[in-house]
Design a protein that fits this description.
With 324 residues, this protein is mainly beta. It folds into three domains: 107 residues, no CATH class; 30 residues; 172 residues, no CATH class. The chain is 11% helix and 37% strand. Strands 7, 8, 11, 12, 13, 14 and 15 form a seven-stranded antiparallel β-sheet that branches. Strand 9 and strand 10 form a beta hairpin.
């Protein structure tokens, strides 16, 4: 259901402190006579709204060029100082508010107060610890890179792995807007969604605001079963020779085809790992390659040099060059 209603804005007097004066009714403060400042208008809380009956909107207020008092758009002279209004600027508008159903906007007096005491302390402590952790991680990587040094290595061996992922066809329960439901979906149930409504508060610039409630229909949600191929296990072949054949594993499917519980071959992954011994520490490090020919080119017993992290000691495999 859509509709529009008009209500009075509120304003607070900056001179005497009078609060919650009416934007349309009180063009001057009834307590001290000070003119209303349009920039200080605000939307009232829900329980304090005052409707304007039979309001005829003629446009934003115009500010007097001489005294900056807000006057109705149809006025020719300022009601406060009598100066001509020709050339006066339009009154400032407050930012539009959009409020979903069951949510109300606070007035300045009702605005949420900052958290105090222990809650603030805990929040600051957690934020501080998290920040320190992030800085420590960044610092580690920066120093590790800056402090890189040269190191000598000897090739002590190779390993390889050929793996084949085995996928199983399973039915999964999923939900989505009905228009996005897969064509292969089965056992479908449909749930009607309630409209989503919100209220828009729009400052009209004349001491009033227009409140417009809008509702949008939501698409129905469908819940269904749909078949998906899911990784379940893998078959592997491994070895350490660069001269012998490196076959892919023989895959045995328990139930080929496309049915619930059926299996099929999935992703294939090849990993070629080079084993290197640090000439200084004697510790073994590894480098992995996707190209088997490059991997084979590193002969056992050959010497190489490379950059290693100044803190982690990790080897930069891209920096490998023949050593002395």
């Amino acid at each position: 259901m859509n509709g529009e209603k008009t209500y009075e804005m509120l304003w607070d007097c900056s001179f005497c402190g009078a609060r919650k004066l009416l934007g349309l009714t009180h063009r001057h403060c009834p307590n001290c006579g000070a003119p209303q400042d349009p920039a200080k208008r605000y939307f009232p809380p829900e329980e304090e709204k005052i409707a304007v009956q039979d309001h005829q909107y003629v446009g934003q207020d115009v500010l007097c060029p001489a005294c900056q008092t807000a006057n109705g758009r149809l006025a020719k002279h300022c009601g406060h100082c009598g100066s001509p209004l020709e050339g006066g600027k339009a009154a400032a508008l407050q930012q539009e508010q959009v409020i979903p159903d069951h949510v109300h906007s606070p007035s300045p007096a009702q605005a949420p107060k900052a958290k105090t005491g222990a809650k603030v302390g805990i929040g600051c402590a957690i934020g501080g610890i998290f920040g320190l952790i992030v800085l420590a991680i960044i610092g580690f990587f920066v120093l590790n890179s800056i402090l890189k040094k040269d190191a000598g290595f000897k090739v002590v061996g190779h390993t390889w792995t050929h793996a084949v992922e085995i996928e199983t066809y399973e039915y999964k329960k999923e939900s989505s807007p009905c228009s996005k439901m897969p064509t292969s979906a089965e056992r479908v149930t449909r749930q009607k969604q309630e409209p989503v409504c919100e209220t828009r508060k729009i400052d009209q610039g004349d001491g009033t605001y227009k409140e417009k409630r809008e509702c949008k229909d939501q698409e129905d949600i469908c819940t269904y079963q749909v078949g998906r191929w899911v990784p379940k296990r893998s078959e592997k072949n491994t070895g350490s020779s660069v001269t012998d054949p490196m076959p892919w594993p023989t895959v045995t499917l328990s139930r080929p085809g496309e049915c619930e519980g059926c299996e099929r071959e999935g992703k294939k992954t090849a990993t070629y790992t080079l084993r290197l011994q640090d000439a200084s520490s004697g510790k073994e490090k590894t480098c992995s390659f996707s190209d088997p020919e490059k991997w084979k080119s590193f002969q056992v017993g050959s010497s190489w040099k490379a950059k290693v992290g100044g803190i982690s000691g990790g080897i930069d495999c891209d920096s490998l060059t023949p050593g002395p």
